[in-house]
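Postdoc handover notes: sequence design on the structure in folder B. Input tokens:
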């Protein structure tokens, strides 16, 4: 028989050509079935995405049919600021038969309500007070950090189970002893330190 290989999402499923992974580690292992009459030891696995995902080909113990294998792909957390892509190729060592699986991992993002940014600052009065700003992200909140430079501003992240993100908690101490505005920058980054969003904050000085 002619050597053959095909990728399926399940026993009766459709042919698979691509696989998408979330940014964070949770749920980062996926698999496809490989229908082939080629012995397992005669199939090579080439992976151009090996820097961020691992591909393992083995026998499928759930079914046990000859020539029926399973390809398990496990991705690490995307701690960069770009989409990651690659191709996993299964090749017959002794011929031209091959199949390709394109893999990609989403671009991490953080967006902030009202579009606060370096050019659109979040501005408050001179009184000391707490403020909360909603943010959205495809990165788990436990994998995010928020930082700022000035001691008069305290920042933190607050989990919001009703959205894919949460709230940025800001506490401003009073600026009533000065008539000058003061500024700081709030930075949200991942655990590696890659900046995903930043915005300027301004606290007004006391004015009669």
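Designed sequence:
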């Amino acid at each position: 028989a002619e050597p053959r290989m095909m990728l399926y999402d399940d026993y009766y499923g459709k042919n698979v050509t691509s696989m998408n992974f979330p940014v964070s580690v949770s749920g980062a292992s996926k698999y496809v079935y490989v229908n082939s009459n080629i012995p397992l030891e005669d199939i090579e696995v080439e992976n151009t995405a090996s820097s961020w995902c691992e591909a393992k080909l083995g026998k499928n113990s759930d079914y046990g049919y000859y020539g029926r294998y399973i390809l398990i792909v496990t991705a690490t957390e995307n701690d960069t600021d770009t989409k990651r892509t690659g191709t996993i190729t299964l090749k017959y060592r002794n011929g031209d038969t091959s199949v390709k699986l394109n893999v990609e991992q989403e671009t991490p993002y953080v967006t902030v309500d009202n579009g606060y940014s370096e050019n659109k600052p979040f501005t408050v009065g001179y009184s000391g007070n707490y403020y909360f700003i909603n943010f959205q992200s495809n990165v788990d909140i436990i994998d995010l950090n928020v930082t700022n430079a000035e001691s008069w501003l305290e920042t933190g992240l607050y989990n919001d189970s009703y959205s894919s993100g949460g709230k940025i908690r800001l506490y401003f101490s009073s600026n009533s002893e000065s008539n000058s505005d003061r500024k700081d920058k709030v930075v949200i980054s991942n655990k590696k330190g890659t900046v995903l969003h930043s915005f300027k904050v301004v606290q007004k000085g006391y004015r009669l």
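Context for whoever picks this up: The mean pLDDT is 90. Don't rerun without checking with the PI first.
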